[in-house]
Amino acid sequence: MATDYGVLLDNLLRFYPFDGKVVLAVGAGGGQLAGYGRAAQRVIAVDPDGAALAALAERVAALGIADRFALVANDFMAVNERADVVLFEFALHELPDPAAALAHAGALAPDTVVIDHAPGSPWAHAADEAEKVAAAWRAVADRGVRREAGFDAVQRFASYEELAKKLAGQGAEAMRRIERWRGCAEIAIPMGYRIAQL
Questions:
Q1: What is the pTM of this model?
Q2: Cys-Cys link to 47, which of 29, 98, 108, 122 (CB 3.0-4.6 A)?
């Protein structure tokens, strides 16, 4: 499977200068974009999923930047660490109240950066996240955007089975939506995403 996370990371690094900054990373578990930690002074990575944080620990160790990361297994709304920037890594749409999360971020850091699926993204539709994504970006717009950029990527899967495994936790509606790819190979689903600075 793969979206080219290297391209996503490059776009993120071009969009926002993490150099020497303390980053409070929300939804950082998994570590696909952890390379920004090379530029950051320190990263406080918050994710309620212990398995995702374990994957992040492996990733930052492989990158040689584990000493820059503090891993926090907690809900973001319970975290009160101060930082230079709060970074939501494809996580804002997953939070129960995106507006409250953005307000909390604003109280913890002077900058907030959101990288997340774009409204209308075919991938967000397939994963049954279109409504959550739209709500998250409404909250971003309501909070006030300093600057924003949109990008296109593709989620690629060698088989239907690989796609189904990726979306297994998304529920019955997502499974119904991907049924059209059953029996297919080399599946490519467009994934639009945005980065915004608040």
A1: 0.93
A2: 29
- Is residue 20 in some structural domain? yes
Measured CA distances, 99 to 116, 142, 147, 179 (Å): 15, 8, 18, 33
Average pLDDT over residues 138-163: 95
Residue 60 included in any domain: yes
Q: What is the largest CA-CA distance in the chain?
A: 49
CA angle 168, 174, 177 (to 5 degrees): 130
- Measured CA to CA, the distance from residue 19 to residue 172 in angstroms comes to 42
Instruction: Return the CATH number at 40.
Output: 3.40.50.150
Between vectors from CA 26 to CA 21 and to CA 28, what angle results, nearest 5°?
90
Range of the domain at 73: 5-153+193-197
Distance, in Å, from the CA atom of 153 to the CA atom of 191, rounded to the nearest integer, reads: 5
Q: Is residue 173 part of a domain?
A: no
As to burial, measured by CB atoms within 10 angstroms (0-12 exposed, 13-18 middle, 19+ buried), residue 64 is exposed
* C-beta of residue 112 within 8 angstroms of C-beta of residue 145: no
List beta partners, residue 190: 154
Q: How confident is the model at residue 1 (pLDDT cuts 50, 70, 90)?
A: very low
Residue with tokens 């999923």: 49
Asked if residue 110 belongs to a domain, the reply is yes
